[in-house]
Amino acid sequence: MDLTAILLVYNPDPEVGFVAAKVMKNEFFDINEWNVAGNLSIDPELMSPFIIRFIAVKQDQQYQMTILLMEFANFGTLFDLIRTQKDIPIPMIRVIMRQILEGLCFIHSQNIIHRDIKGGNIMMHSVPRSGKVILKIADFGEVKQISKSSQNQMKVSVRGTPPYMAPELYFGIGKADTKVDMWSLGMLLYQMLTHTFPFNPTNEYEIGQFLGNEILNRPDSI
Fold this sequence. Notes:
GO cellular component, one term: cytoplasm
Domain Protein kinase: 1-222
Strand content: 15-25%
Keywords: Kinase, Transferase
CATH architecture of the largest domain: Orthogonal Bundle
CATH superfamily of the largest domain: Transferase(Phosphotransferase) domain 1
GO biological process, one term: regulation of autophagy
Protein name: Putative serine/threonine-protein kinase unc-51
Mean pLDDT: 88
CATH class of the largest domain: Mainly Alpha
Helix content: 25-40%
C-alpha cells in the first residue's frame, strides 16, 4: 500500500451512507490533523457547510493502520474542474470564490490557518436532486492552531504546495497569519482565470524569484 489511500466506504446507517476513508500506517497518522479537523466537526449544526466533516478515527494495532472517516464529496475536486474545463465562466468563479471564502472565514474564526489551499484540496459535492454543487475545504494535514496570546501570528515553517505558498511560508521567514491562506486562494483564482501561474510552477527557483522580486499583474481576462 502507498503511504496513504482514500477509499469509498458504505455505512448501512441511512443517516450516514457513503463516507471517505483515509487509510495510512500508524506512523504516518498526524494527530494534529484529527485534533483540529475533528474539533471543527464536533457540532454539525455549527460548522461551516464548506468544510469536509471528519466523522471518526480508528486505529488497528494488529495491522498498525489508522483509518480517518470523513464526509464523502461525490463531484471530484476543483483541480479536476480547472483541468477539464477550458473556460470557467466568471459567474461560476464568483460562486466558487464565495464558498471557499465562507469556509476560510469559519476556519480563521477558530484561530486556525489551513496552509495548503489549492484546487486538489477543494472537494466538490452535488447534493442529490438539487442541481447545486457545494465546495468543501479538505486535507487538514498542514493546519496550524494559533493561540490567542500569539496575537494571531505564528513562527514560520515551510509548509504547503510551492506554487500556492505565500512568500513568508515559501522562504520560511518572519511570522505568518491567516493572510497566507488568502495568498493561496489568490493564486487559485489566478489559475481558474488563466489555467496557468505567473511563473513556471515546476521550477522552484523561478517561483522563488517571482515571490522575492516580481509584482503580480492582473490577468487580461478580468
